[in-house]
Amino acid sequence: MFLRLFASYIIMVIVSDALICLLLLHRSTSDQIQQLLPELLIAASFSWFLALLPAYYLARRFVEPVHILTDGARRIAGGDYAHKIYVGGVGENQALARTFNEMSNELAFQFEQLQTDREQLRAILSGMVEGVVAIDPEQRILFANDRAGELLDFSATDAVNRKFWEVVRHRQILQVMERAGTVVDAHREEIDWIGPGVKNLAIYVARLPGEPSHGTVMVLHDTTKLRQLERLRQDFVANVTHELNTPLSVIKACIEALLDGAVEQVEARGQFMEQIAGQADRLHALILDLLSLARIESNRLDLQITAVPITWPVQEAVDRHRMRAESKTQELVVETELESELLAWADEDAVGQILDNLIDNAVKYTPSSGQIRIRWFAIDAGHIALEVEDNGIGIPEADLPRVFERFYRVDKGRSRDVGGTGLGLAIVKHFVQALNGTIRASSRYGFGTTFTVILPRAPSH
Predict the structure, then answer these.
(1) Residues 454 and 331 reside in one and the same domain
(2) Are residues 19 and 85 in the same domain?
(3) pTM of the full predicted structure?
(4) pLDDT tens, 85-111?
(5) CA distances for 442 relative to 181, 246, 373, 452, angstroms
(6) Does residue 413 sit within a domain?
(7) Which of 27, 133, 365, 401 has the largest count of CB atoms under 10 Å?
């Protein structure tokens, strides 16, 4: 641009000199022309030479603001929104520079706002428990949060710009994505993910807005725990129904027998009445256990946590079960070698119910002439252990991890014969957890079982 302006100024001077020369030559005779021509050429050459400096100055002065504006615009386009354009003089160039600076400030604000919104959106998507994957029409991954990588077993950062089918090899999910390309409305599907771990996934797929669509967004929700809870609920309902139906069936059969004439037979009548009373007690125990379990799981225990001397609830629980143990010629032994009293941060009634269930189980599953030992001791400065040990039938090693589940029985037939509801150990576990403690079971099948409850220790006074 500078060269064009410079040449334009020089051409203007040449044209002006040429017009002046032509005018003079037009008004002169041939003799005068011969005399003036050398002088005119010298004057024209001198004027051209003198015009070079102002032409260069003017062209440079005009082009310099344009260069500054061009350079500033290029830097702003490259992302340097803090760059400011300053040009000298007044008029249109300065107004244009101010406009560029205002545009730069506005662009900087808009891009900063966009970056903030993008970071907030990324933080929200990254913190979601659901997996989110955005895919363009060519099946390239535009975005994937970490949760999606965990659920679909790929690296979220490495997956961007790669084809979806390159990073996800699960056939059912690929089929879901294929169907999403042919369906306008959002839809939901559930699949079973079979890989390193079996998972249940609910997949929501929707097309991104635009015509044609700019791609597809997939939202994945892990429903594995929900499925497990649903199965537990179904099992619980089935177990409760069965446990209630069994004694009710016996009671109904006994009553029908009595109505059919057994009431007139003294010996038979007594047996039927004993069965009705026994099954009624079983129903009552089951209902009490169900109510206790419901109260525990709904956090309505209203525990009073105090420093409880372990000796008190142990002695009371032993006294409550001594008569039953003696009726089976069993021996209840309380062991302690402590010179000072151990205190636990606990609720005295809750500790009593824990001991009642553990001792009751030991009495049920220990044969006649067996022995049940209750002991307690300090583990460290912050914890104490309370143990109930028997030399009864024991528990197979494969069943130990499940003994605290509701209605789980190692030997279902034997458990019902001794009157168990299948809820005692589940209640114990919930009580122990409510007291911020832990419980574990150890056993040798055929030689006995030991339950160990660990509770927080309170300082001795």
Answers:
(1) yes
(2) yes
(3) 0.53
(4) 666 655 666 777 777 777 777 777 777
(5) 56, 31, 14, 8
(6) yes
(7) 133
